[in-house]
Amino acid sequence: MVSFSNNQNQSILLETSNYQFPNFDGEDAFDKNWLQINIEVIDNQKNWKNTDPFLLSYEWLTIAQWFSDRANFKQLKWEGLGFIEPNITFHLKESNRINNTINFDIELSLECIPSFYKEDDIVKYNFSFTSEQCKEIAKMCKKEYEKFPERK
Fold first, then answer.
1. Structural element, H or E, at residue 37
2. For 65-121, how does the pLDDT look when each residue is reduced to its tens digit (9 = 90+)?
3. Distance (Å, rounded) from C-alpha 58 to C-alpha 148?
4. Is the pTM of this model over 0.85?
5. What is the Cα–Cα distance from 34 to 21, expressed in whole angstroms?
6. Residues in CB range of 111: below 8 A, 6 or more apart
7. Ramachandran angles phi, psi of 43, nearest 5°
């Protein structure tokens, strides 16, 4: 499970439950690798859960690399990180090596918008992590990938 939490009593939890098509034996690279992702959003006293196929297996590695690069304060290839299904997006807001802080937003849209925000098209949550926390996120993402790796 990959867990993001902030000091406003907000958390986003992501975990892969299976391939969307576990017995798929066709040639389509996308259909082979769509994952069922469990998402849980805790926003103060509100709690919401959903399962939806919004990441491909190898996109876990892309997220891991993005957080690893943030942890090492590397020059950015891209500030934002989005995917084919635009349900979740990561946006770097600020990176400060001196204070060891990486400030980023997670934007949720479509099937990832909690029911208590149904009127919104996008919901943003802000997080501020240390480089060590970003390294831990990268490790958790790699573990999620290893549960259901890319099928070729």
1. strand 34-43
2. 999 999 999 887 778 999 999 999 999 999 999 999 999 999 999 999 999 998 899
3. 9
4. yes
5. 7
6. 50, 52, 54, 87
7. -130, 95
